[in-house]
Design goal:
Elements (H helix, E strand, L loop, with lengths): L1 H16 L3 H17 L3 H17 L3 H18 L2 H17 L3 H18 L2 H17 L3 H17 L3 H17 L3 H21 L1
Helix pairs in contact: 1-2, 2-3, 3-4, 4-5, 5-6, 5-7, 6-7, 7-8, 8-9, 9-10
Length: about 200
């Protein structure tokens, strides 16, 4: 049964990779039915979360929220903390897209609390970055800058080069906007160095 559910998952990857998300949802739904029939908890959670992700990427936020919240409830039941962080982050992302910033902050903060509890630095950095963009939109630029800097410190500690590059560029643009010319230049140089490191890795 687990193998059959995994086959549907692979078909979904094939269709989604070729730009047919509706067929991908069909295969995920079929896989979900099989996983539920045999009570395969982890597979059920994965299918539900990924159906939510496709709806989210298609802009169907009400359906995305239903699936994300369902996955969150199941992850809570099985005690999967990293899964909960992922779900909370995705729910926060939906509310951010809808400009419901208070709700987005609430879910990002819940995700961060779990990240600190389980020492999940990358999850913490991701949610700090998300918060930074909310503060930026709310023109709370001091808070935005401090939050991005904290996220940068974390991704530097765990050497996530793509995120280091992104956050240096983000901070460079923010510092330039705020008239912090030297800081903007320093962040841009660090962005350039991270970009070169990524190219060398390829």
């Amino acid at each position: 049964a687990a193998e059959r559910a995994e086959i549907y998952n692979n078909f979904r990857n094939l269709y989604y990779g070729t730009g047919e998300p509706d067929k991908a949802i069909g295969f995920y739904t079929k896989g979900l039915e099989i996983a539920e029939m045999y009570d395969l908890k982890n597979q059920i959670i994965n299918f539900i979360g990924n159906i939510g992700l496709i709806h989210d990427q298609q802009g169907n936020t009400p359906k995305a929220l239903v699936y994300y919240k369902r996955a969150l409830k199941l992850n809570e039941e099985v005690g999967n903390k990293k899964g909960m962080v992922n779900n909370l982050t995705n729910i926060g992302g939906v509310y951010y897209t809808e400009k419901k910033f208070d709700q987005a902050i609430d879910y990002y903060t819940k995700a961060m609390t779990i990240c600190e509890e389980i020492d999940y630095k990358y999850g913490l950095a991701t949610n700090l970055t998300n918060l930074g963009f909310i503060y930026n939109e709310q023109v709370q630029l001091d808070k935005a800058q401090q939050t991005f800097e904290r996220a940068l410190q974390l991704v530097t500690e765990i050497n996530k080069l793509e995120d280091i590059k992104f956050l240096h560029l983000t901070l460079s643009q923010l510092c330039e906007h705020r008239g912090q010319t030297q800081k903007a230049l320093d962040h841009y140089k660090a962005y350039d160095a991270a970009k070169d490191s990524l190219l060398n890795e390829e």
